[in-house]
Amino acid sequence: MSNEETLPTPATTPGAQSPRVDSAARRSTSAVPTGQPHGKTTIADSVVSKVAGIAAREVPGVFALGGGGARALGALRGAVGQDDMTQGVKVEVGETQAAVDITIVVEYPAPIQQVADTVRSQVTNAITSLVGLEVVEVNVAVNDVHLPTDDQDDQVEARVS
Q1: Can you tell me the distance from the alpha carbon of 117 to that of 92, in angstroms, rounded to the nearest whole number?
Q2: Domain at 148, CATH number
Q3: Is 50 exposed, middle or buried (0-12, 13-18, 19+ CB in 10 A)?
């Protein structure tokens, strides 16, 4: 017989979802190396959202971020010079990890799957390098395809004034 004890495993409820990122209950504390300043850096969720939004917008083939209503509100904000870089981006941030959901509109005729894969890669790289968090997932939802003729409808002059 062995002298080792077997620790009980926590029961899980069927159908219960576990968080996508590390939670406070599972965080481990590590000793700060001698000679290093003590302290903690806290990065707001909105910062992670903004980094993800900027990275996604830089991908060729991405026309816009967000759904129709969010884009309309974003157009109003843009008209007054207050662009919302977090539009169409939702993040879940833990102590060392982040998960991202992004809604995009793809420019026709860009290959949709390739654009989504590039968005996923760019967002992961930006969050990892700029924020220092491990990205556990980036979900990309393609909400629409922007056609060049969509812009022409906006430029038609009114028949009456």
Answers
A1: 20
A2: 3.30.70.1350
A3: middle
86 is in which domain, residue-wise? 43-154
Strand bridging mode 134-146 / 97-107: parallel
DSSP 3-state of 121:
helix
Mean pLDDT by 10 residues, the chain (161 residues): 47 61 57 72 94 98 83 54 84 96 97 98 98 98 93 61 62
Secondary structure of residue 76 in the 3-state scheme: helix
Give the predicted TM-score (pTM) of the model.
0.71
CA dist., res. 16 & res. 12, Å (int)? 7
Measured CA to CA, the distance from residue 38 to residue 43 in angstroms comes to: 17
For 100-115, what is each residue's pLDDT tens digit? 999 999 999 999 999 9
